[in-house]
Write a structure and sequence with these properties.
- This protein is α/β, with parallel strands linked by helices.
- Helix 1 (77-87) packs parallel to helix 5 and helix 10 (320-337) packs antiparallel against helix 11 (343-350).
- It has 13 helices and eleven strands.
Amino acid sequence: MPQGSSHRSPSIPGLAGPPEPVQSAPHGLGGAETVDACGLARSASCLPRGAEPIGSGRSAPGRVHRVVVIVDEGTNPFEVGVATELFGLPRPELGRPEPLYELTLCAPAPGVRMNHGFFTLAGVPGLDAVDDADTLLVPGRPDNVVPRRPAVLDAIRRGHARGARVVSFCTGSFALAEAGLLDGRRATTHWRWTDSFRELHPRVLLDPDVLFVDEGDVLTAAGSAAALDLGLHLVRRDHGAEVANAVSRRLVFAAHRDGGQRQFVERPLPEVPDTSLAPLLAWAQGRLGEPLTVGDLAAYAAVSPATLHRRFRAQLGTTPLAWLTAERTALACRLIERGEVRLDVVAVRSGLGTAANLRERVRRATGLSPSAYRRRFGPP
């Protein structure tokens, strides 16, 4: 690929195979639970007070938002693939032939071997590409205790200083911390590396039990799969809930797992099929405008509220009330995007009850008032 070009196609030119074969080896918010400022029992994705809701890396009007990914020695290919899927591919599910973003991969050397040498990245721009980034993305790598190249750290600092939104996937948070961007800030990383992270970066306010943390201009995701959650969160911030839902449907991925959910659950699979929450969630999602309470959810599942609470914690990493509130707020955002201008109607149809509650929930979830959200994401 010529120097300075951007990756726009589903394939990634410059990714070559290894030189040798690799051996296989609310209206109705029931219960007495306290909900925090995001409308969730515990959410690390809530925008900080006063933060720009779209991020300081917002591109200029009329220009496509530019996402630049730094690929260093040992970078995980999966996370580069996540970035390519979300930010580099056309979006036929939206009826548009072009991507939502302009994606560029860059590297500190003419050729870098990715994790375990499965791929070698070559023929992409150097780190000067960072100077054009609206969002700068740093994937993870397994050798986190090894210092990053000074040139990579300088590029991260330079991108942040010029106003780019800086994002890490998985253990890419080590690079952001090493560059000094996370001191005094909340952040997360893969749970397996939390002890090493705390030892190396004690000034970072690490939260090891969430999917991602949004600090406005700096965002960090936990494990590799959480990169999808954070990536969709960015699409939602930049283009609204309706677009993010369409993209998630194409990925066959959960439309919205809030950043405050746990990285892993106590039981990855239910002990017996009857304990799965899927039928209950589908039933509730079709009735968000009704005065559902946690008691109603428990009754439908034929369990006590306490048992339902334990199952939500074990399977989703959140609580019934937090899930219900988040689903209703997301529905309200979609109704606004589809052109409904009457806030009282949006409040009733989404189950949030009143326009005042709607305003509070939307502002806490997005950083915008409903009217500002409509101006940004609603129909022309």
